[in-house]
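Reviewers asked in the last cycle whether our approach scales beyond single polypeptides. To address this, we selected a multi-component target totalling 693 residues and predicted its structure end to end. The input consisted of the following lines:
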Amino acid sequence: MAPELPGIQCEPLAGSVAAWRAAVDAQQWLRAGEDIAARGGRLAALWASDDSDRTAGLCVRALLVSFEGLICLELRVPEHDASFPDLSESFPCADRMQRAVFDLCGARALTRDGTPADSRPWLRHGAWPEDVFPLRRNVAAGARWPAQPDAYRFVAVEGDGVHEIPVGPVHAGTIEPGHFRFSVVGERVLRLEERLGYKHKGIEKRFEQMSLADAIRLAGRVSGDSTVAYAWAYAMALESISGAQPSERALSLRALLLERERIANHLGDLGALGNDGGLAFGLAHFSRLKEDVLRLNARLFGHRYLMDRIVPCGVAVDVDPASIAVLLGEADRIEREVRALRAIYDDHAGLQDRFMTCGRLAPDTAARLGVVGLAARACGIALDVRAHPGYAPYTELQPRVATERAGDVAARVNVRFEELFESLRLERRILRHLPAGDCVLPLAAAPEGAIGFGWIEGWRGEVFVALEAGAAGTVRRCHPHDPSWQNWPALEHAILGNIVPDFPLINKSFNLSYAGQDL
Amino acid sequence: MHKLLRQIARVGIRTERPPQADDSLRQITDRVNQEVLRLLGRALAIRHVDAGSCNGCELEIHGLANPYYNMEGLGICFVASPRHADMLMVTGPVSRNMEDALRRTYEATPEPKLVLAIGDCGCSGGIFGEGYASCGRVASVIPVDVAVPGCPPPPDAIMQGILTAVRAPAQGFR
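The resulting structure, written as structure tokens, was:
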């Protein structure tokens, strides 16, 4: 059933996601955002494309999620002094996405009084000039500019005894680069401001140099830890514009790979969280189990992290009865071992003392910020695209959504434990009821200008891909959206009132992607 | 406590033999002399710098610490500052936004130092290549001693790269 938005015509999009697109003017854009927010909907992504070579001007798109499904608002604006109404009043998470839209496409989000919502750059540090917008069609892919001055304005906190601790972009551990500016009194954090974008390497421009068939490899490298989720989301978008449907077997195998990705990442995180909480034993044992899963992936599917195993309209892997038996045996063993390790974690007073009440994100704050994925489920917000709206084969598999209420590190640990067991259950069910069918089906040519969406629940949260076909099987525009866009701002809230030495633990409990949001 | 001890006893020691050095990974052979390499090879301090990877290589670098590879058992450890490091382990194509940070990390690392480029992106720019926001391979920004290809290279390949960097080449220095 089409969503009802006053005065707005919603046109349904083909494909496995319930989605509509709607051309709107500036007033409708703002109004639709308010309506959807008032009904408990949220903003999933916001991006812009340069269409000046075709229909003139830029097209700014906001992807809203309502009960009915996805609604893509399309606002056309002229390319000179391009602007669009700021959506951050309805959806605070719009702020960084809007700044990225200006950095890459040159359309500025303006508040009701016509002033920029936040004029600071987000992805542009010093690699290109302020008046150049790399995603514009007239900017060559290989263009290079000399380094520009980079003076980012952090919000300063003043007061007696307040001082700042700048951290990064190069961190003390093996993690991705980003800058954290802590304002502290003694050990206590008064404010954290994140600055990201260090890993921006121009992925969206790179997409436009690729064919629709090849670009799935790039999609699988937007955030390497979620390669299956991204590749599936890309494939779903491509299949919807080509009018293709993978076989039931291929869809079941995709779900098998996605659950194995969730299992591997949750095992790794549970070990790392034990380590950050002072129990190195946890890291040793969980990292051993994770390595077992990765090695079995390499043996049965040819890649430890399952990169490039999902292909357009199918999968590049299959399982035979012998490998099904091995996978089932592994699932039982991991379940047994993780239950034993969970009992040790639960009984460990020192560890629970570090986990409980640490890095608490209140449910109302999480809802207001539009937090998604496991971070949302840990504060009682039962979002999981696999369960609602669901997509094949999850509509049949009926995954149970794991939730906790406390919103602290302990809750995010418990959600991971529950999801791990649920993924093992799903894995067994998939393997025992694997339908017959071809692993790969032919894919019809995608009509030029067609737009498709893919929406997949990865281990971290929902991964979204918007794809627009160009001429002769090329990518005209591809926007991959990581759940980290929504969740990074939540970390700034979760740390408040905690002590600086707890930051690594709190940060790890969210385990957000830098690469995925820096693009 | 007894559950924890029982688990440790039940699992036992899982560490495997480390791989052999591989001279074909070498990019430069004459930066650090043999005597220094001999010392570094016994206690090596590494600083990891992610210069723009997809984070796949980081997963495998984390893997080096798991009980199968047990890198610290070989006297190799990761340190929190480049000032404490003998080797920089760099992943990713170097994003323009990380170019300066990478160069400054390199300068902060005391001589003699080694640089290991990890992954297809670190070796060649990989799928991201060069563009308005990417400098491509690590060697386009700082000198690289050993490059380990792979997308991502598994922990034993990374370990092989580390061991290659701290062993003198089989045919001696040029």
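The longest strand of chain A covers residues 42-50. We regard this as preliminary and will revisit it once experimental data from Aim 1 are available.
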